[in-house]
Amino acid sequence: MAERKQREARVATGVAELDRWLCDQVRQGLAVSQQAGYRHWDDIAARMVDAQAPGLAERLRALAAVPHSGPGWEGRLLEEYALLRLLTVAYREQAALPPPLRATVRSRIGFTIRQADVLASGQPVRDHWQVLGRRDLDQDRLRTRRVWLRGRNSGRYALVLSFAAAGQSLDDSLTVGTAADAELVFYPAAIPLRALVATSRDEIRPGPPPGEEVERVEGAEGVAELLASWAKALGEDPWLDSWPAVLTATPARSPGPCLFDASGDALPLHPGAGHCWTLFALSGGSPLTVAGEWTPRGLWPLTAWDEGGMAVPL
């Protein structure tokens, strides 16, 4: 109990310092940020680490690349400052927040919940979970695997994370294009997406046996539906940085790399996703079912399904 109170006090001090720092950045003007070196961001991030607020430190370190991210960087940086400011205010007023939103705020600050506690207190959700896509990220000396699932019956999305130190293998039990009858337990949050696999009723196969029908993805949306669900989610969790997407759309190169649906609405592809040659070759100008992560900078495609319904990781 004493350690918990001590950490809360340290985090509160760090949050107050970050609040002052954010005010200074806006007062000085955003142009100063473009001339600032990495140390400008690393210093304040290090102070958040000292304050035991690693979630804030991670967001601050990511800001170093924003002033060099191309046209419109000023708006993106100001947006990130506003979200950080909102987070500091939410933490100070957390006692007045609904429990799910309070859990989200504390998670964004850097408070963690033990897996054993999630499994013990959460309500298992059983479904036939389809593995839609996965993405591996390297951060410092830690590797993260993000695997997106969706329940065939509930239509509910789930994000399963696994971690490994550099040089070690990540969990490979969830294979894209397969599915499993399993129970998932979700972490408490305003938008509960992150989940743990509590029990699996059958083996998750690496692929269909010869002669068996492949696991077809269902419930593809149009662009307007996706953006409407994203807007609704942001209303409940303003700090969301990605949102699951399953679209029926056609890849195009003009006016920029994008996906457009039958109504003509289009979504840009994320600049970091590369040229996506596999996606364009698989399409050949025809519509595809594509799963990915929608972000403020565009869609990061993860998986596409060919005419036969076979999942192709991108």
Layout of helices and strands, plus pairs?
Elements: H1 2-28, H2 31-35, H3 38-50, H4 54-62, H5 73-92, H6 99-109, H7 115-121, E1 125-139, E2 142-151, E3 157-165, E4 179-186, E5 195-200, H8 223-236, E6 243-252, E7 258-260, E8 266-268, H9 277-283, E9 288-295, E10 298-305, E11 311-313
Antiparallel strand pairs: 1-2, 1-4, 2-3, 4-5, 6-7, 6-9, 7-8, 9-10, 10-11
Helix pairs in contact: 1-3, 1-5, 3-4
Could you walk me through the main structural features you see in this protein, from its secondary elements to its overall organization?
This protein is an alpha+beta fold and 314 residues long. It folds into three domains: 2-109; 115-200, no CATH class; 223-313. It is 36% helix and 26% strand. The chain has helices spanning 2-28, 31-35, 38-50, 54-62, 73-92, 99-109, 115-121, 223-236, 277-283, and strands at residues 125-139, 142-151, 157-165, 179-186, 195-200, 243-252, 258-260, 266-268, 288-295, 298-305, 311-313. Helix 1 (2-28) runs antiparallel to helix 3 (38-50). The radius of gyration is 21 Å and the shape is globular.
